[in-house]
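Key idea: predict the complex, not the pieces.
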Amino acid sequence: MDFPPLAWQGVVVLVVFGVSLLIATYSTYAERVIAAFLQDRVGPDRAGPFGLLQPLADAVKLFTKEEFFPAGANRALFVFGPCLAMITALMSSAVIPFGNVLQFGETAIHLQGIEINVGMLYVFGMVSLGVYGIMIGGWASNNKFSLLGAIRAASQNISYEIAMGLALIAVLMMSGSLSLREITFQQASDAPFVWQDIFNWNVMKQPLGFIIFIVCAFAETNRTPFDLPECETELIGGYHTEYSSMKMGLYLFAEYINVFVASAVMSVLYFGGFNFPFQAELRNWLVSAQGLELVTASNIITILGLVGLFAKIFSFIFFFMWVRWTLPRFRYDQLMRLGWTILIPLAIFNILLTGGLITFGIIK
Amino acid sequence: MSSLFLFLSFVALLSALGVVLAKNPVHSVLFLILTFFTLSGHYLLLNAQFLAAVNIIVYAGAIMVLFLFVIMFLNLNEDTEPHKPALAKFAAAIAGGSLLLILVAAMRDIQPEGYNATSFDSQIGMVDKLGLVLFQQYALPFELASILLLAAMVGSVMLGKRETGERNF
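Result:
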């Protein structure tokens, strides 16, 4: 069958979509297993071997629950809220470069949904839209606690977006490009020494920026210790108090997809994306010692890079869950103080520092 | 391309009408967000990716969240909406109508140049090109605008500042 090159990109988009959903599904399982591990419990082990079918059981339960509409709710927006949360969460994974090029004869498949010139701004825009799902859902529920949760989510996201954007500017000053693919390529290194490979990752040049970014990522995805929008002790369930069945499921799903995307973005921006140590040597060795063609060797490197990127992503997802079951929740005024009076000045200082180091040629 | 343009324009006009005609202020804000999205779509059609992304981040992502925020807090809805006197409605219609008249009169004489395939630069709307133009050709206006924004920011901080002895929490 003759397949036009654009159609391959369509297949990649569908695969990215499917993988995002699959990872979100198994994040719900991983969350419970990790919680059990950290609290010295057994965790889910009834459905299937090691409880691996637990997400399926949850889905059946959520789908068969009663569709409930609270009295006085704005029905259209009540349904629209979770849909919007899900849509914006899924859209942001489109520009992430999951791998380099796979070359099969004439066709080259880029392991990235779509490459755009302003990829980082695209992710940032989608993240900033994510709060609408929460706000609309919280408001449409016609419940004071939901509304308070929604308002909290909005002010928290706006506050931390600023620090996140400022942390990104420091990365931009070094890369000179907004394209995530370009930023990944700049972190590649041909140095014959493992530490130099890793030293080329942005996290080594931007340690402060990375710390600011990861704190903001926790706040943007509404994860503990910044999960104030759904703070049970004060707000019952926050914005999803009135939600049940699959609408509730969509909200939870969107949160896990956001965690996945945030992990992917951090891996790409700061941890070298699909680059891994010794990739150039491995390719040379495959060509010279094993007698493979350069194209085949490059494909093998691409697949290993894909696996490497997912290893980085999974360790970040594990980190998100580890923090959730370790740290208690912040108080609301502490959250705002941290965002406005600590993270933003630190991020501005980081920009000045980066500018100075670039001017004196210490980093590039 | 042309059908995409027509579709975007149709949605833009429809949602802009929705902003004005919706009874519920929250619906109005949501229609306005949709209008911004269609405008971003137009920017993309004009090959201005940076402008499209920034339009979504700044207008749809930040400013409209604040709009929604205030409207939700004030809990405005159809029941509490005050009835405006007929004179105010009349004055608003006249003012809006004359603005439309001026805009149409100003646009009437524009001769669309069309594009010249030889001199057209496809990179014109890209972020690096835009940055060069902003910081070389328009450096002074750009800096002046940033000072204006800074002044506005300082002013809002002053307005929102806590009075002595006042406690918010």
